[in-house]
Amino acid sequence: MGIDTARRTFLFAVFRLATCGSLLTIPGCGLSDRGSTEEDSPPPTCQEESNFSNEVYPLLRSRCAGCHAPGLPGGATAFVLATDATGDYSMVKGLVTPGKPTESYLLMKASGQTSHGGGAILAESSGEYRIVSAWISLGACGN
Predict the structure, then answer these.
(1) What distances in angstroms separate CA 137 from CA 24, 30, 82, 103, one per listed residue?
(2) What is the SS3 string spanning the chain?
(3) How far apart are CA 120 and CA 76, in angstroms?
(4) pLDDT of residue 10
(5) What does the alpha-carbon distance between residue 15 and residue 106 come to, in Å, rounded to a whole number?
(6) What are the mean pLDDT values of the chain's consecutive 10-residue runs (143 residues total)?
(7) C-beta separation of 106 from 97 below 8 A
(8) What are the angstrom distances between the C-alpha of 97 and each of 19, 33, 66, 75, 80?
(9) Residue 8 CB partners (closer than 8 Å, separation 6+)
């Protein structure tokens, strides 16, 4: 799959989240005609090209690195943005449940659903939340 195809797939997922509210739980908006749910859907297969480096990681750097970097208050947590997209990918992926954004610790913390010292930094209705959610829905693929 080329970059253009992967980008189209990713943007379609973001569009579906924006218009349907979820990729998986609303009949007609899900990944199948029967309206599959997160609970009965297997994790998606990773795309060849990923939007982690180009879309998700820059968003995490801009929204989270002010605290979640070495030597800063969030630097003592499991989420530390210390290097670059390639170096930090495994750490970030360890905080998500591929295919299940609503069960992903990263989004629960960032949206304030779970206690977060920095408060809610990604509103569930925001485009930034939808970008991260779509990446997780598509399998949280990396570089």
Answers:
(1) 9, 11, 25, 11
(2) CCHHHHHHHHHHHHHHHHHHCCCCCCCCCCCCCCCCCCCCCCCCCCCCCCCHHHHHHHHHHHHHCCCCCCCCHHHHCCCCCCCCHHHHHHHHHCCCCCCCHHHCHHHHHHCCCCCCCCCCCCCCCCHHHHHHHHHHHCCCCCC
(3) 19
(4) 54
(5) 21
(6) 53 51 43 46 59 93 95 94 93 95 96 92 95 93 76
(7) no
(8) 23, 24, 25, 22, 18
(9) none
Using CA atoms, how far apart are residues 101 and 140, in angstroms rounded to an integer? 9
For residue 51, the model assigns a pLDDT of 85
